[in-house]
Specification:
The chain is mainly alpha-helical. The protein has six helices and no strands. Helices cover 73% and strands 0% of the residues. The protein is globular, with a radius of gyration of 14 Å.
Length: 124
């Protein structure tokens, strides 16, 4: 099984940390920490997908390409959803305004659900 050839423990730890952070969004500091946990988890996720795809003979050069092929390989169900996560990730990099932070936080439940699905789909 391909998943046995790749160490995904950093991804699983990052997702666990993200889950912990998203449960505590009361203060500005907690929300900032949750956004940072999202950024880190998102980055590890697409790079893990990329490595899994490379093991299957697919070379990808961007998150969008990775998500498209990951959907073809049934790692994820819908690449468009992951494109939305990419947009949110871009927001976190380029600006930090309260309105933008709220927009990013609003997708956390959906991101969590998609992460659980991805982890299940790759056989963890």
């Amino acid at each position: 099984m391909i998943i046995d050839e790749i160490n995904i423990s950093p991804l699983l730890k990052a997702f666990k940390k993200f889950e912990e952070f998203r449960d505590h969004l009361n203060t500005e500091q907690e929300r900032a920490g949750s956004i940072q946990a999202f950024e880190y988890c998102y980055e590890l996720t697409w790079k893990t997908m990329k490595r899994l795809l490379e093991k299957r003979g697919h070379i990808t050069n961007s998150p969008r390409e990775t998500f498209r092929i990951a959907a073809m390989e049934r790692f994820i169900d819908n690449p468009e959803i992951w494109f939305d996560f990419l947009k949110m990730r871009s927001i976190t990099v380029h600006t930090y305004e309260e309105k933008e932070a709220e927009k990013v936080i609003s997708i956390f439940q959906f991101f969590s659900s998609e992460m659980k699905s991805f982890i299940k789909n790759i056989g963890v």
